[in-house]
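Structure tokens please, single chain.
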Amino acid sequence: MADVAIDMTYGKALFEAAKELGRVQETLEEAEALSGLLEQEPEFFEFLSTPVVSAKEKKAVLAKIFEGRLSTEIKNLMFILIDKGRVRHYPRIVRRYRYLLNESEGFSAGTVFSVIPLTPDQVGAFEEQTSRLMQKKIKLENRIDRNLIGGVRIFIEGKVIDASIKGRLNTLKELIANN
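Here you go.
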């Protein structure tokens, strides 16, 4: 539960700072780019997260690598996370930031899982259909789930729309078992 509070606190602080500066979208793009880089470079993420290396050394390396490439807001956030030993929270903080941005724009965010990447048009069609079903504006992020046989599974606000073949087979299996 403490992790959720940490993510919410830092995500909200970053969102409020970006809003004051009128850089909400730019900050999101930069934060997500850094999050993607940390995901692609797990050794660097581990370096920033480990308590073995001093905060001073971590901040020096981060400042040197990203000199002139990180906004003051993102750099300061990373420095605070390093000082507090909370760098591992960064990806979740970025997700919280995105959630707050979507909420401020009147959107609900969700995830559409598929076996293969969906085209922007396909994601848009799912957003439109889901928006009608949920009676609110929906933004969907596409993620790959190799466990699906086909179709899609959509998660929004704790709800699941299972239009996958695997889901249909499980429903059929339950029907057969109950008869």
